[in-house]
């Protein structure tokens, strides 16, 4: 998406947020088995124009069967984290070849599911602040669970 010449004037962060929002809308519509009228109403509430709503609904309808197959293959039980590994990455340049010199962490979660055993590892990149925030939230969750089991 970032390489599309029609989108070169749009801030990459805004573009990524729009992509995530569209993907979320599509997945939720598929999960809820929403019909075209429900999707149209939702998109009208988001102030999209009729032409874009029609185009979105046409594409959604065309790909709905594939989406249902994809959602069905995900499974029903949540993944269980069995191990975590990480490494420090030092980014020198970004996609636009601007020098950044930013350290970040590549975190890999080894996961398994009770449905079918093993799954591909979940990997993500984060800054030190984001990693500290994640660790803090995990500690809060552990404390909450500890308190709940003591009652």
Automatic annotation (TrEMBL):
Belongs to the COMM domain-containing protein 3 family. This is COMM domain-containing protein 3. It comes from the Eukaryota. GO terms for biological process: sodium ion transport. The gene is Commd3. InterPro entries: COMM (IPR017920), COMMD3 (IPR037355). Residues 80-149 form the COMM domain. It comes from Oriolus oriolus. PANTHER family: COMM DOMAIN-CONTAINING PROTEIN 3.
């Amino acid at each position: 998406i970032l390489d599309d010449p029609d989108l070169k004037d749009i801030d990459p962060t805004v573009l990524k947020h729009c992509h995530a929002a569209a993907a979320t809308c599509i997945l939720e519509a598929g999960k809820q088995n929403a019909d075209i009228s429900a999707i149209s109403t939702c998109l009208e509430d988001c102030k999209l124009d009729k032409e874009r709503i029609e185009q979105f609904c046409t594409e959604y309808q065309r790909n709905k069967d594939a989406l249902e197959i994809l959602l069905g293959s995900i499974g029903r039980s949540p993944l269980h984290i069995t191990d975590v590994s990480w490494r420090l990455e030092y980014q020198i340049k970004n996609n636009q070849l601007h020098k950044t010199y930013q350290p970040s962490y590549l975190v890999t979660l080894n996961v398994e599911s009770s449905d079918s055993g093993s799954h591909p590892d979940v990997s993500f990149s984060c800054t030190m602040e984001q990693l500290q925030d994640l660790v803090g939230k995990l500690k809060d969750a552990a404390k909450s669970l500890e308190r709940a089991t003591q009652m």
